[in-house]
Write a structure and sequence with these properties.
about 525 residues, mainly alpha, globular, MFS_trans_sf, transmembrane, Inorganic phosphate cotransporter, membrane, transmembrane helix
Length: about 525
Amino acid sequence: MVVGVKVGFVGSSGRYEMLSGWRLALSKLFVIPQRYVFSIMALLAVANAYTMRVCLNLAITQMVKKTVAVEGDANWDPDACPDPSAAANETMRLSDYLLRQTGPVLFEWSEATQGLILSSFYYGYVITHIPGGMFAERYGGKWVLGGGLLSTAVCTFITPYAVKTGGATALFILRVIEGFGEGPTMPALMAMISKWAPKAERARMGAIVFGGAQIGNIAGSYFSGLIMHAGTWENVFYMFGGLGLAWFALWCILCYSTPNTHPYISDSEKKFLNENVQALIHSEKQILDPVPWKALLRSVPLWSLIIAGIGHDWGYFTMVTDLPKYMTDVLKFNIKSAGLLSAIPYVAMWIASFFFGLLCDFCIKRKFHSIQNARKIYTTIAATGPGICIILASYSGCDTTLAVFWFIAAMTLMGAYYSGMKINALDITPNYAGTTTAMVNGIAAISGIITPYLIGLLTPNSTLKEWRVAFWVCLGVLVITNIVYLIFAKGEQLWWDDVKRHGYPVAWKHGPLPLRTNDSEKDENEQTKDKQ
């Protein structure tokens, strides 16, 4: 048996030894490469993050006491869609009354209060994005991501107890804490993907990993509807919190921050990744220079990416957060149907994300278009297409089949997002992907704070006309932000991401970027030698 044989290339931890003993035996148990084991576990991480994030969106429709307006009331809507369950409810008043005495606890929350609760998650989510990205770049993404999702899982699990004890205030605080935990998710994943994804596989791995968002939305919507149809809203939080705890146990065992810290990755795959992953090729022991903030904050391509992110999140959170309310309050679906029909658009988006990912990689390899043009094309598809579709859905009136069709079409086109701006940070800043993703996601997630509350204000009576106004606002934001991205976006590594390799641009007049201490001392020694 060969033990400790040195190989001839340098990874992020220096020269490494070939596998032997139990590590070699364990590596042979995996039938797929470790980068795809990571991709699958990362997909499940995103899926768990989204189920725990969105399960409240449907659950809240069953947590609140409903009031039915009749003709003559100030807020009566003559254009309201017919409620199929209304007649049944009229003949079951006594049984409904008896059921309420032993049923789940319900709360008297206004539309504005519900909007504030739905937006509370993003108050914490925004704050931890940048610190999470910086920690992931410096110390690795495994524990930053794992620890954050563990805290979210625990908070989700105790939600029923907290809300029954402290009401809307307790739920608001708990959701803010969950946001703190999930804030580092995307930055940590981006930092890890930048170490695990060869350039030619980025779109494919991005589609796999970030497609987990759609699995989370599908599971969160569909199973929440089934659970509440058969039981109570409390069970939704117990189920998804428990699944989050189970995922954390597997993550600890199977995944590592980089290929060179993985104890049982095969020698051939480690060599392949060190030769084909840009962040591993152009690194020395993975010790980065300090984040070049003065260059980063002046980067027009990065700010165009942030603006595009604001637009996308505005449209996405409008769909994710408020589609279940539109289904139940406007189209009058029951909770089981609302769960299923809220999930179907995300099934379409998930499938479409793989199609767009494969198409994007194929076109780039065949040189049909550049990486930069690819990001612009797919971002445009994912922005303007969904905006137009949700407007058409609102003008479908009470034709539920047509309305659902347009919602499905909207999310199908949004699947192009994962081959567009979502992975653009890996193109322009592979070395600081965690920090730049944190900036993009963190600033863009402000949309998650604004949209639920704004829609609550725009739809106080939840009428079709009020929702139509909200959807027009969404289309306007999507189109304007996409135009900015089309003008200023880039698709290649920016100079400040690796200034030693690219040098300073001629127009740069803001002084040198900071280097880590060892590099500064090294440069001084070299200058001294030159003088001697």
